[in-house]
Amino acid sequence: MRTRDCTGEAGRAGSPLPAAARKRVGAVPVWLRLLCFCLLTSVLGLSASAQYSIDWSTIDGGGGTSTGGVYTVTGTIGQPDAGQMSGGNYTIDGGFWGIIAAVQTEGAPLLSILRTTTNTVAVSWPSPSTEWNLQQNTNTISSLNWSNVTSGVADDGTTKTLIVNPPTGNRFYRLKK
């Protein structure tokens, strides 16, 4: 049986080999080149964008109130990452989020609370409400520890506004005669 070395004949004109068999030895198909290019660029792209990572996390417990008979216990569980954490140009404040809430009093003007673009909170109500005083409380809505807000209220003639920095913990506001 005779064998033919087709490596020498594949590139010559007039070769007895069919056209499909006359390929360069070692030639890589175009689709395989494109596949390799896509894989290479995606791997390089992943390594270039992998500058940030979250390599640990915690699930902190919530809190609540438990009541039985004449006893009441209020508490929170788990705060290992409470406080400020930073690295490089980034800073994060960990812990439970506080709330700033409006408590609507029956018959009082509408009290609104909005976050500003400077990450503060604006507590506002209509200006022609001279008989109503803004009060705040850091405990609970039903607490008796309400106190009048005596400074920091701006009045533009249409709206009265108090700008508040986000507090640690909760803060409630209401209008009271």
Describe it.
The chain is an alpha+beta fold. Among the domains are: 44 residues; 77 residues, Sandwich (Immunoglobulin-like), CATH 2.60.40. 14% of the residues lie in helices and 33% in strands. The strands form four sheets. It has a four-stranded mixed sheet with strand order 5-12-8-9, with no helix packed on it. The longest helix has 20 residues.
Write the layout of secondary structure elements.
Elements: H1 6-9, H2 30-49, E1 63-68, E2 71-76, E3 83-87, E4 90-94, E5 100-103, E6 112-115, E7 121-126, E8 133-137, E9 147-148, E10 153-155, E11 159-164, E12 171-176
Parallel strand pairs: 5-12
Antiparallel strand pairs: 1-2, 3-4, 6-7, 7-11, 8-9, 8-12, 10-11
Whole-Å distance between the termini?
113 Å
Using the 3D structure, state the CATH architecture of the domain at 100-176: Sandwich
Look at the structure and give the CATH class of the domain at 100-176: Mainly Beta
Weakly predicted, low-confidence segments? 5-11
Largest sheet: number of strands, sense, barrel closure? 4 strands, mixed
Helix/strand order: HHEEEEEEEEEEEE
Overall residue-averaged pLDDT value: 75
Number of helices: 2
- Sheet/helix structural class: alpha+beta
Outline, from the CA principal axes?
elongated
What is the fold named in CATH at topology level of the domain at 100-176?
Immunoglobulin-like
Widest beta sheet: strand line-up: 5-12-8-9
Helix fraction by DSSP (H/I, runs of at least 4): 10-25%
- Based on DSSP secondary structure assignment, what is the total number of beta strands? 12
Radius of gyration, in Å, reads 36 Å
β-sheet strand percentage? 25-35%
